[in-house]
Amino acid sequence: MKTKFLILFLFANSILLNSPLFSENLKIDMRLNTKEADEKNYMNFSYETTTSSTTTKTKIKDKYDAVSGASKNHSTKKTLAVYQNQSKKKILPKTLRAFLLFPVCDFSKIEEDNLQIEKDAENLEKITVTFSHRGNSYKIESDEGGNVFVNFQKKKNGEIKNSFRIKFKETEKNDGEKEKAENNEKKEEAKTPKQEDSKQTDKDSAQNENPDEKTQELDSANKGEDESDGFENDGFDDAAEKVYAGKLKLREKNGILTLKGKVKLVEKPKIEEVKKEKTEEKEEQPEGNPTESENENKEGKPDKKGDGA
Known about the structure:
Number of strands: 15
Order of helices and strands: HEEEEEHHHHEEEEEEEHHHEEEHH
Strand content: 25-35%
Mean pLDDT: 74
Shape: globular
Number of helices: 10
Largest sheet: 6 strands, antiparallel
């Protein structure tokens, strides 16, 4: 009995020691010709898988294979190793992973997913890339120097910069309910075709009953939503303890996009603490109207007691 227990213990311990705990120092290098099919397109990435006993470096070089109609090195599957942790929690922006797969797809995917590039008229290094895939819309926005940030937290003030945005399609549950409702309507319309106009009126009335309801649900479920266009921050899963963070360089020349750089696995940025500090600073500010003395000081006048005569 003791011998069996010892064997099981050693076996379990061996699995634990050799199982990957995390992948860090992720390097990214991609090239994409957005104007025409190009054999020079590629997507390379490398990372380190660390266990308690060893560190393994993994390098993946991939491109589109016209014969199979897919990536040569199966990047779609292999990028999951850095997109999610072992608990399947997102630690890298979904937008970034989706963008990295364009060079390993057929050129028709660029048109199919409506990939667009927009440059700032006053600063050509400031680039915005948008595309859509399976109902979701994606956006990447660089700064004035062509930098794109991945969950990047400034040490000075704790501000978190992220250049990736996403607009989700309706949830699968809502899609299912919508399809079911449409099928029911079609059945009813087949029975009573004369009631088509009245049914459409009822349908429109139900949709407009509370137009803000859907927006409110999205606001509560997703933080950092941009109210102007419906896009929201695409960073990491709140349940993840460690996430990738860093800075990449996005360039465009003659329709060719390149993205290069390195991100590191770090402790999740403490968003709540940053918010708390800002709230405390706001609460410390005095309320009400400033005194005459404060007004005088703002205008550059000395704060004097009495009439000064």
